[in-house]
Amino acid sequence: MYSVAQIADWCGGRVVGEGGVVIADAAQVVIDSRRVRPGDLFVALIGPNHDAHAFLPQAFAAGAAAAIVSDAAPARHGGAPMVQVADTEAALRDLARAWRARFRLPVAAITGSCGKTTTKEMARAILEPALTPLVTAGNLNNQIGLPLTLLGLRAGHRACVLEMGINRPGEIDLLCGVAAPTVGLVTGIGRAHLQGLGDADGVAAEKGRLFHHVAAAGGTCVVNLDDPRVVDQAARHGARRVVTYTTSPSARADLRLTVERATVDGARLTLNLGGDQSGFDFFSAAPYQVANAAAAAALCHVLGADVAAIRRGLSSFRPPAMRGAEITLASGARIIDDSYNANPESVLAALTALAATPVTGRRIAVLGDMLELGAAAPALHRQVGQRAAALGLDRLICVGALAAHMADGARAAGLDPRHVVTPELALAGLADLADGDRVLVKGSRGIAMERLVKALAEQGGVRA
Predict the structure, then answer these.
(1) pTM of the model
(2) What CATH topology corresponds to 325-460?
């Protein structure tokens, strides 16, 4: 338990009202007044489109025990205690930092240009239930989501796995300052968020800051030997306690995960760890998914998971919706729903995997805009289109304004693509889907390619 006065001390604020009011450990820290339950602590954030101070009456009516507000907050509501601070978002981070400091447990942070969320969910599958982990829910990986996750730490947790998403310099430092990670994993470094980070070197420098913080704290850096930029960042930041992983049969690493053979429903993988070699079934033979699995396995090995737990977790794992989940339509065509987000590396990896997948029908890609690429966007979209043509795909549909450059690249390389403006308009180009076809749907969050997946499922029906 902690009091309102303690909150004020942690956040550098001042108490308005009764400072002795206690927040129970079972209570939640909430930023949405509609989710407040009796006893919760409400934090009134101010965003670009809303000011949660307007909902203080609703929060207190729902039973909030106290609230953190800015100096510009309205007068007290019904005598309920409040902590006034200059910046409620900064106060949320301060609160999370103080709360995290109360727990002595391994805290693992995952960042990277691709595969963060899938790797995090694979780690969850490995660690549960034995290690009772606290794991980032959904994609609560930013300056608001990460503190909220940490504030969910309870005495029963034995490990914590946090996803860190960034799009501008300084954010890794900010997040690490809150989380104090003891284990750091950079899944890979590629051309993502170039609008804020400049170029691939800027991405590498920012992602590498995770290794800096973990190494400085004497923690363990989990290093992907298959990505030279990741290896370089670990070396630059003086990582001494290192666990390495690879998916290459010829590379030497602490953990190796390789494809023994592709199967109808995925792949048979071989895991080499600590002198133990064993095999297990996995949902996918796609190299990028195997790489995600290797990353999760290495991370969980550091956190204390044994080989049996790693095999069990990965063999049972299925990707969440919009993260590579497969949907079989009534026609027999399979949709690979990877619609949550996209950058050049992740799209190229998904295209390569699609081209290598055994099919009895056609290989089709429906690709949306890749956003936040700055001035490099047209050229990078053209490169993706050229690659789609070179891989011999049977059909390419490009969705969005930037995707027009993708269509140009594909056309110049000999493929006849279709270009449409919205995901729903791509539906007409998929009217002839049949048994044996495999369709990849992928694009940046802003283009909302899941609308196409939903339309396909509604129009064509889904097999149970």
Answers:
(1) 0.92
(2) Protein-Tyrosine Phosphatase; Chain A (3.90.190)
